[in-house]
Amino acid sequence: MKNNKNSTKTFESVVKQLVKKLGMEEEYQFAILKEEWKEIIGERIAAITNIISLKDGKLLIETNSSTWRVELILRTEEIRNAINTHFASELVHTIVFK
After folding, report:
1. N or C, which end of the chain has less CB nearby within 10 Å?
2. pLDDT tens, residue by residue, 20-33
């Protein structure tokens, strides 16, 4: 079993190196962000939001509710910190709610 863990880590490191070499780090992290959004932000907010894009540290999030948009704007820093903590990097600098 230990070899299986090592193989997974090796595969993960190879993927990360390839992504970096191709200059697709932000796209890769965006895909992970979309996949892990509910875990990062919680079910309640994940249910009413849709992540649209991540470009140059600017995250665009859509919600259909103007009431929730105001709430999310008030919690922008908290959301940004949750994402950056999850990725252990400054992935998101700015969040725009649409």
Report:
1. N
2. 676 668 888 999 99
